[in-house]
Amino acid sequence: MKKITVVLLLLSFHLSTQAEQEKLLTFDAFMEQVKTQHPLAIQADLRLQKGAANLQMARGGFDPKLFSEVSQKYFSDKQYYSVISSGLKIPTWYGIEVTGGYSQNDGVFLNPQNSTPEAGLWTAGISVPVGQGLFIDQRRAALKKAKIYQESTLAERAVLYNALLYEAGKAYWNWFESYNTIKVYKNALEVGQQRFDAVKQGALLGDKPGIDTVEASIQVQNNMLNWQEANLNYKNATAMLAVYLWADGIVPLEIEEETRPIHSEDLQTVYANLELKKTLDSLTNRHPLLQQYQYKLAQLKIDKQWKREQLKPQFNLKYNAINQSIGNADFETYNANNYTWGLEFSLPIFLRKERGDLALTQLKINDAELELLAKQAAINAKAIAAFNKLTITQQQITLYARTVNDYSILLAGERRMFNAGESSLFMVNSREAGFIKTQLKYIQLLTKNHKAILELNYAVGLLKNKG
After folding, report:
1. Dihedral of the CA atoms 103, 108, 112, 116 (nearest 10)?
2. Planar angle of CA 170, 31, 384, nearest 5 degrees
């Protein structure tokens, strides 16, 4: 009795020490690591910076611009002419361009139209597009598209996160399944080895037929083969899981040998939410991939607006008030009759280039709209399929939990009968094989259940880190 107590105490100490050495890596902790540390997750954040840089570039089209020009000619000790002008141009959102400048020109052979007072000449004016460019121009179109693109980078980042976390999640549940599978086979191998030792001892004592040792040995060999196969799958699944574990996006991490996933008996079944099914349509409509198509359509519609604007003639009016510079009293001498004005007009006769460009843009819009509808239908179908899988696996797990328990009862009863000499080793092995099969099936169903919720979240685009 004392020996039994010591053995139990040693076994208890060994199990507790083993449990302390094991490091649990939960699904949530793993996914959080992927979200924040994986290179693709960090790369996805760069999309936002790209959108901000693109918007900054488009806003540059409305930056005020300083200009200056100097042109002089000297020949035979004479200054033929000296033309100096500088100023500032300010484009506005409404297509009007405001200008201000100063010019000072002189010379023996200066073109009379360029003549200015000795102190120079100030100008201030505007340029107004009355025809093409009145409602939209290339600068405004570029800025509008850049703003839409900046918003689309949020959706683009979400799409990248969604795909990354989906693949990472599948890798985790494959790891979970392989780990719990190897546990089943390891336990079967240990039990089979103990039975073989007992049968062998019984055969030596004459209590068991010698042929039983052969059957018990075959069972051990089969269990060993299954355990080796499961061990190989576990190592491969661990290697695939390590692909998604990084530090700061630059240092690949390895999974320590004592790290393990959650045990199957500790994993809770995910139940289908009926309220979620009612909102699947609205959730799929907000999928980041569909948002990308919607943003693309919005950009194409801006292109169409600008292409249509180009069918109008270019008709620009320019007006510049001029005033000579005479020191501090510049504005006191201003005369409204001193000005320059101009008109620019041009229109292609057939407009074939412009009409063709507009038609191509409309075709792009039609193509994008059809593609959006197709993607929307495909995403909705995937979401429904994932929800159905979640519902079925939930029901199967409930059913199969009873099956595992019933097989456990059958196996325990068969073992008792075998020990009492009322059953055969063949029947025990048969019951044990059935019990192993049900355990593995139960683990597979648990894995499918959690993969189903992963697929559902992926289908509706909810596997994203931020924004």
Report:
1. 30
2. 50
Nearest Cα residue to 177 out of 260, 247, 281: 260
How far is it, in rounded angstroms, from Cα 456 to Cα 162? 11
Give the integer Cα–Cα distance in Å for 164 and 175: 17
**How far out from the chain centre does Cα 167 lie?**
11
Mean pLDDT within 97-115:
90
Q: Which CATH code for domain 21-58+140-301+360-459? A: 1.20.1600.10
Q: Which residue has the tokens 């620019």?
A: 344
Query: Which part of the chain has CATH 1.20.1600.10?
Result: 21-58+140-301+360-459
Amino acid of residue 420: A
Structure token digits, residue 402:
């009873």
H helix intervals, 243-327: 274-278, 280-285, 288-309
- In the block, which residue shows the tokens 């076994």? 11
Angle at the Cα of 446 (from 444 to 448), degrees rounded to 5? 70
| Average pLDDT score, the chain | 86
- Residue whose token pair is 């007009």: 345
For the chain, the first-to-last Cα distance in angstroms comes to: 65
285, 369, 449, 463 from 274: Cα distances, Å: 19, 31, 16, 20
CA angle at residue 354 from 371 to 350, to 5 degrees?
Answer: 140
φ, ψ of residue 118 in degrees (nearest 5): -60, -35
Distance CA 425, CA 213 (A): 9
Of 181, 180, 172, 187, nearest in space to 255 by CA? 172
Q: List beta partners, residue 124.
A: 100, 321
Q: What is the pLDDT of residue 168?
A: 95
Burial 194-226 (b: 16+ CB within 10 A, else e): ebbeebbebbeeeebeeebbebbeebbebbeeb
Range in 65-74, 276-285, 306-315, 326-335 the model is least confident about: 326-335
Residues 335-380 pLDDT 10s = 777 888 999 999 989 999 999 999 999 999 999 999 999 999 999 9
pTM: 0.81
What residues pair up with 70 in beta bridges, in sequence order?
Answer: 84
Confidence (pLDDT) at 429 = 84
In the chain, the amino acid numbered 357 is: D
Token duo for residue 323: 């005033």
Alpha carbon 307 to chain centroid, angstroms? 33
Q: How far apart (Å, rounded) are the C-alpha atoms in residues 149 and 54?
A: 8
